[in-house]
Specification:
The complex is a heterodimer of chains A (741) and B (343). By secondary structure, chain A is of the alpha/beta class. In chain A, 63% of the residues lie in helices and 6% in strands. Chain A has a 6-stranded mixed β-sheet with strand order 2-3-1-4-5-7, sandwiched between helices. With 343 residues, chain B is of the alpha+beta class. In chain B, strand 6 and strand 7 form a beta hairpin. The radius of gyration of chain B is 25 Å and the shape is globular. Classes of the chains: A alpha/beta (741), B alpha+beta (343). Strand 9 of chain A pairs antiparallel with strand 13 of chain B.
Chain lengths: 741, 343
């Protein structure tokens, strides 16, 4: 706005910038600030992407945009800043999402707010529109998904709707890009003040309530003359909305939209502000206890009445019937679970089978070819041995290993999973499994974050954003590590093949070792339920809980866009974080094996110290040291273990040199190295258990911290599985020794 | 190698020790924390609370009465009273001790914390109703006034605790508790439950079992020696004489209708469209707001459409969207058949 119509209140604008920074917005320069609001799953993010060209991931998931996204672009010579608010059903500030959305519309003072509305559920969506119209009158409604509505036999007259709401209404099909530019054009003219709006306000409350509200509205307007939404402020104060009360207390409210001059804004004295709050808390006692219910009832009644006037429904219901048939099959008592297991099995099979070839190719390129070539290059330029070792044997090799093992399965798993998500199947999985998770005090959606964890725990933790109940989300975050991620599968498969398969008769060896790996994964799921139950009944007993699960209509997935976005925001982000952590780990691994103290390497010292404890829990010093230095990624456990075993057992003629991680071509020869290092069947079993039950990798720990913003819960998520691993391995080892001859 | 028997025994002993030390409430650490100087403060505050209760009941406090409440000897109760008087919190008069203004405000602060904490437990946590009181009984002595105010604003300044008791304001004002005992209500009148007494726990449990909650409306069918027979939305319920004093009610106007044969959304078969008539008063806080936000307000049409593979949750068509609710949530929502409402 600033460059268009310089505000008479310079101080106000400065103040607004401050409050925007407080709201977490980057303080760039822009001419128009546009907020994008809407119910969950209305195609809001699609509109955002169409407008900004930014490919923010949009899933067929209610409540995708938990973290606010912003984008900037230039339109008609104006710099436009677009802020995507979290999708909410309401602005009553009942959840964090609602608070974020409400605070932005109220305190961020966008020049215009675009409300994206799902044409197939107009009545439900109007609830939010009406609440926004109570706060601000600069609103444009984007009537999205009109094609889907047509398929469902619903037709809405945008002109009539616009007349009823008193703000422009623009029909759009955002997925195909139709109408999005019109929305922007009209929004900008509303922002410029060229289009006048006359917003619909929710009708009065019952007489007794109305008196109270009117009394407080008067007090508010005396203290803050010129604010356009005095009645709304009064209603919120009566509803004990802490953010609004705080704005009154600090005087911020007077600086919000509508106050024309700074002088006027400053009118509210300390005394007046306090009196508003005092009046509010006295009046609150006069309200009936169902005050809030009544407010919601009236809003919905208004929404219903408006919808009736503008919508014709029931023309034809082809798409709707298809949805119902699909739902019948997918949630049926007899077919629901088999179909679910089949679909998940196909995804896992495609991931494991499909990742082998590219993984081998990457390994041969990055490790077998590029590594010796780099060593040669270093020798040619005369690099000192320690620098060459640190950088190429340590840092480069660790990074190469992580990339070649991690990238291919993630690049297959995540797009497949995302396709299911876009289609709308995943909420049905949560629906089917909810009762199981409920018994452990968790949310059905945890089934999905758990599945995602089988791909990568860090991605699984990010995926918990779809769980909107704080307690259940924390449980899902903390227990995600019990899903055996694909960085741990190779360890499990190798150890099972070498040690467990060897116990069985030759023709059954393959089957037995595969069964052992599956048993570990299933044990992980059992531990996940156990830990969820424990957490929800002890530490998390006092956390908030609300449940609801929207089952969105099925939508044909857009394959190319899904591939693109799931690569960008899942695969690459996770890989990048893993690489960041692998770099220092590579250096540490090389250093501990090459720095010597009193003639022996640090690694041997550490292994010696850790050995007694390792033996106590059925492992050994080498394994524990490997888990300490290889915390960034489970992928490098086996190469590190092999290298350390060769080093400490003093095996000659095996491996690539001190501090150089390696794997051998045949499983059998790797087994030989380990057996020479003193490994037994017990070591193998305990390692498989410990690989399942230990602290998350540092990428995941970091992600948990980013998601929870709490050192406490990050610590719990880190220490809990580790402690469980120690206890389980200890018990297995001791009982084994007691029972075994 | 360590002998496995030894290792396992040490492990067993260590885990037992940890349990004994840190188990909440019974653990040694919890006991020590309670013992060290806490007892005294708790007893003083509890004594103030009791004086306050008697003052509201306009009944005198006797030494025996106080000793019984605090579960201490009369000698100890006398010492506590002396301490209160010395601190200027109470005065000793002819008809027993009474509170000074300062003592009253301190008592109300404690009550405020207690009732707010109960509200918190009821609205935001999974703690069971019969445990609210005992948990709050501990918390009331640990929170500072500022912490209590923060709690109040996080909860949206609630006015009543989950048992229906008014919560004192931060200024120490406490609205009078209206309502009459059920015993005094003539047959045939409709009442609304205002308050359920949460002590003793056994009686409170009995009231909970009968499905009573503040805000519930019922009709007095019969009032006799064997107790009071109520028609509640969930059916006829008999309150034994001993429980009568624990329920206070307000009498509704003569022509007011009592919801009978309440049908909850959980009982509606798939495919039947019903109208929402309300959400149970037992459902409060964010849970209630969520249901309202989803559009489950009075008068909304709801149709159960899909039952999940394991029967719970069920997905309902609510205002065009398909939304799954758990059975526990659906039970809170009372509905009526669409045709009934039309008639």
């Amino acid at each position: 706005m600033a460059s268009l119509a310089p505000s008479p209140c310079v101080g106000c604008n400065e103040h607004r910038e401050q409050s925007l920074v407080r709201l977490g917005l980057r303080p760039d320069k822009w001419d128009v600030l546009v907020a994008l609001a809407g119910n969950p799953n209305t195609g809001k993010s699609t509109v955002f992407n169409e407008l900004t060209g930014l490919r923010q991931h949009t899933g067929n998931w209610p409540g995708k945009t938990v973290v606010r996204a912003e984008g900037a672009f230039v339109h008609g010579g104006q710099r436009v800043k677009l802020v995507d608010l979290p999708g909410t059903y309401s602005l009553q500030a009942g959840s964090t999402d609602e608070e974020v959305a409400r605070d932005f519309i109220l305190f961020g003072r966008p020049d215009v707010t675009i409300v994206v509305v799902d044409a197939t559920r107009l009545e439900r969506n109007l609830n939010l529109v009406l609440q926004i119209l109570d706060i601000t009158d600069r609103v444009v409604v984007c009537l999205n998904l009109v094609d889907e509505a047509r398929r469902h036999g619903i037709s809405i007259d945008p002109d009539k709707l616009s007349a009823r709401l008193g703000v422009p209404v623009v029909p759009a099909i955002a997925r195909e890009g139709h109408g999005v530019n019109d929305v922007l054009e009209i929004a900008l003219s509303v922002a410029r003040g060229e289009v006048r709006t006359d917003p619909f306000r929710i009708p009065e409350q019952a007489p007794r309530v109305e008196e109270t509200v009117a009394a407080l509205t008067e007090t508010v307007q005396e203290a803050f003359p010129g604010i356009p939404n005095g009645r709304w402020v009064a209603m919120r104060l009566l509803n004990a909305d802490e953010a609004v009360a705080e704005a009154v207390r600090s005087g911020d409210l007077g600086l919000l939209e509508g106050s024309e001059t700074e002088a006027e804004a400053a009118v509210a004295s300390e005394e007046q502000r306090q009196s508003v709050l005092r009046t509010a808390s006295t009046l609150r006692w006069q309200l009936p206890s169902d005050f809030h219910d009544a407010v919601m009832e009236r809003t919905y009644a208004a929404a219903e009445e408006i919808t009736r006037g503008v919508q014709t429904a029931g023309l034809k219901r082809v798409g709707f019937e298809m949805d119902r048939t699909l739902d019948r099959w997918l949630t049926n008592r007899w077919t629901g679970f088999p179909l679910m297991l089949f679909i998940l099995a196909v995804i896992f099979w495609l991931t494991i089978a499909g990742a082998n070839v590219p993984s081998a190719m990457l390994a041969s390129g990055l490790i077998d070819s590029a590594h010796p070539w780099l060593k040669g290059l270093a020798a040619a330029v005369g690099m000192p041995w320690w620098l060459d070792g640190l950088l190429i044997d340590g840092v480069y090799l660790a990074t190469a290993w992580v990339v070649s093992v991690m990238l291919p399965p993630m690049a297959i798993f995540f797009p497949l999973f995302t396709l299911l998500e876009d289609f709308g199947y995943l909420p049905r999985v949560a629906f089917n499994l909810d009762s199981l998770f409920k018994r452990a005090g968790a949310h059905g959606k945890q089934a999905l974050t758990m599945c995602m964890g089988f791909g990568c725990n860090a991605a699984g933790v990010v995926a918990t954003r779809v769980i909107d109940s704080p307690r259940e989300r924390l449980i899902a975050i903390i227990t995600n590590n019990f899903s055996l991620c694909n960085g741990r599968w190779p360890t499990q498969i190798l150890i099972a093949t070498v040690f467990i398969g060897a116990v069985a008769p030759a023709h059954l060896a393959g089957l037995v070792s595969a069964a052992a790996v599956v048993a570990i994964a299933v044990f992980g799921i059992v531990m996940m339920f156990l830990a969820s139950w424990l957490l929800s009944h002890t530490m998390l007993r006092g956390e908030a809980t609300t449940f609801s699960l929207e089952l969105p209509p099925y939508r044909p997935p857009r394959i190319l866009q899904t591939l693109y976005t799931s690569m960008i925001d899942r695969t690459l982000i996770v890989l990048w974080r893993a690489v960041l952590f692998a770099v220092p780990a590579g250096a540490v691994i090389w250093l501990v094996s090459n720095v010597t103290m009193g003639g022996t390497s640090l690694a041997e010292h550490f292994v010696g110290w850790l050995e007694p404890f390792g033996l106590l829990i059925g492992l050994n010093g080498v394994i524990l040291l490997a888990y300490v230095v290889a915390i960034p990624a489970n992928e490098i456990i086996i190469p590190t273990v092999l290298m350390l075993t060769v080093l400490t057992a003093g095996l000659a003629g095996v491996g690539e040199g001190t501090g150089v991680m390696f794997e051998l071509d045949s499983v059998q020869s790797m087994g030989d190295v380990l057996i020479a290092g003193g490994w037994t069947l017990l070591t193998a079993i305990c390692l498989m258990l410990f690989s399942l039950l230990h602290n998350p990798c540092s990428t995941t720990i970091y992600t948990i911290y980013k998601e929870t913003r709490s050192a406490k819960w990050t610590t719990v998520a880190t220490v809990l599985p580790l402690a469980m691993g120690f206890v389980v391995c200890f018990l297995v080892a001791q009982v084994w020794r007691l029972v075994a001859p | 190698m360590v002998d496995p028997v030894l290792a396992l025994s040490v492990f067993f002993v260590l885990s037992m020790a940890t349990v004994l030390l840190f188990w909440p409430r019974w653990g040694l650490v919890a006991r020590l924390r309670r013992g060290s100087g806490w007892d005294e403060r708790i007893q003083l505050e509890d004594a103030l609370k009791h004086l306050h209760l008697r003052e509201r009941q306009q009944a005198p406090t006797t030494l025996e009465d106080l000793a019984g409440k605090l579960e201490v000897s009369t000698g100890r109760a006398a010492t506590i009273l002396v301490q209160l008087v010395e601190a200027g919190l109470a005065t000793a008069g002819d008809d027993g001790p009474s509170l000074t203004d300062e003592g009253r405000s301190l008592a109300r602060q404690t009550i405020r914390t207690h009732r707010l904490w109960e509200r918190w437990l009821a609205d935001r946590t999974g703690v069971r109703a019969e445990d609210w009181h005992s948990e709050a009984e501990r918390m009331e002595h640990t929170l500072t006034a500022e912490e209590t105010d923060r709690l109040a604003s996080r909860l949206g300044h609630p006015r009543y605790d989950p048992h229906g008791d008014p919560i004192p304001t931060s200024g120490g004002e406490l609205p009078p508790l209206g309502g009459r005992s059920l015993r005094t209500i003539p047959e045939g009148r409709a009442v609304r439950i205002l308050h359920l007494e949460d002590e003793p726990r056994e009686l409170y449990l009995k009231l909970l079992d009968l499905g009573l909650a503040p805000g519930l409306t019922a009709e007095v069918l019969e009032s006799s020696k064997r107790g009071v027979l109520l028609r509640t939305p969930e059916g006829e319920r008999l309150l034994e004489p001993v429980a009568l004093g624990h329920v206070s009610v307000e009498v509704l106007p003569l022509d007011s209708e009592v919801e009978t044969d309440r049908r909850s959304l959980a009982e509606v078969p798939v495919g039947e469209a019903v109208l929402v008539t309300g959400i149970s008063p037992a459902c409060q806080g964010p849970q209630r707001r969520r249901l309202l936000d989803l559009g489950l307000v009075r008068g909304a049409t709801v149709t159960p459409e899909l039952v999940s593979t394991s029967k719970d949750p069920v997905a309902y068509r609510i205002r065009g969207a398909l939304i799954a609710l758990r059975r526990d949530q659906a039970r809170w929502i009372s509905v009526t058949t669409a045709s009934d409402a039309a008639a």
